[in-house]
Specification:
It is built from 5 helices and 2 strands; from the N terminus they run H-E-H-H-E-H-H. Strands 1-2 form a two-stranded antiparallel sheet. The chain has 2 domains: 46 residues, no CATH class; 48 residues. It starts with a helix and ends with a helix. With 95 residues, the chain is an alpha+beta fold.
Length: 95
């Protein structure tokens, strides 16, 4: 098969962004909530319990594996030759 024939049979692929898993937003929220705790409006035991609970959640999230974003390829079912034929060019230019 020559290069032209191979190109005509080349399948069209679409790139799809698959967002990864990242817990940074949740970690930031927990850090904010720890800083926002006011020990003057609760008992020492309540304050300690709130900090302990938030730190445990923070540690749990930090231990989870993070996955980066990635690109997946998906076949569209079209060939590049089909797309070329569908272009609105004068018939003499199509060859």
């Amino acid at each position: 098969m020559n290069n032209y024939t191979e190109l005509r049979q080349l399948r069209v692929k679409r790139l799809i962004l698959v967002t990864g898993t990242d817990y940074q937003d949740q970690l930031d929220e927990i850090s904010y909530r720890i800083r926002a705790l006011d020990p003057d409006v609760m008992s020492d035991e309540q304050f300690d319990e709130q900090v302990r609970r938030l730190r445990a959640e923070r540690d749990r999230l930090k231990a989870l594996p993070a996955e980066p974003d990635r690109w997946d390829e998906q076949l569209t079912g079209e060939l590049y030759s089909d797309l070329y034929q569908a272009l609105p060019w004068p018939s003499a230019a199509r060859g």
